[in-house]
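Lest this sound abstract, we think one record worth quoting, the chain in one-letter code, the fold tokenised, each line plainly labelled:

>
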Amino acid sequence: MKIAVIGSGALGCLFGAKFSKKHDVVLLTYAQKEADIINKNGLSVKEEDGSVERFNEHVSACVTGTYEQSVDVVVILVKTLQTENALQQNLKLIGKDTLVLTLQNGLGNFEAISKYVDEKKLILGTTNHNSVWLSEGNVFHSGSGITTIGNDKVSADNLQKVKGLFEQSGFEVAVSENIGYLLWRKLFVNLTLNSFTYITLTPLGFVSQNQYARVFARKILSEAVEVARAEGQNFDVDEVVKFVNYVSETHLNGYSSMSQDRKRGVKTEIDWINGAVVKLAEKHHISVPYNECVVNMVHAIEDADAYNSSMK
């Protein structure tokens, strides 16, 4: 199959590299320099045991919007704030039989993508893999786990086609009939681990190991569980806290995408993570002061970092 990965960040490079074992892969990036480096050197993935695997065949890169052939599967891994623009630039990738999979963080991606893609071809997914960007085309695979996909409007054959893509690439994958539930579970992780490690620039494992961080996580999650219940998803706070701690403990040396954003000086997806909870809470007249505080704090840090950089 021909696979296009829109987004050449840490996860984009990880999945693109592994997919290229069995399929032809093109990575869409925003920078010509990055595309040139990947085309020259390929991709490399460093595993937790220190081994490094290089991928030079069946993988190429080009600047977003310049690849003009339709593909079999499009995997979207850009930040949520870039979703619509990325799709508008790359509509030629999507033919009548193309399947589109989003593995993005936050809420709202399905609604944005469905403006351009038939819902019968649009698959939602979550992944427990963590990847850290080292340099152009080089990533550290810092944590593994299951990838789950689904959408009851997509045929079983098409879901199995995408499931097979992951399995052939060495990833554990499952098909779920309740993808909304799983998206909320992934959101709980992002609400706490992403936002806290952005603010503190600590690895994911710090949250489960530090008593003050655990208090922070419970406050955020308690509010979010109340909002999820109002949206028709029934969660137990203690079970959610336990799940988030498990993710933290099994990704001790990993870094969240948001903390990597801060190190690279780019805007975050906070408005689609904690900000999504704040927006839904307003709809249901629920008070979520801790999530509101996180959104404001992250935006303040974004501006402060930009200010401090301009003063150097």
Notes: The mean pLDDT is 94. Residues 29 and 63 are 5 Å apart (CA to CA).
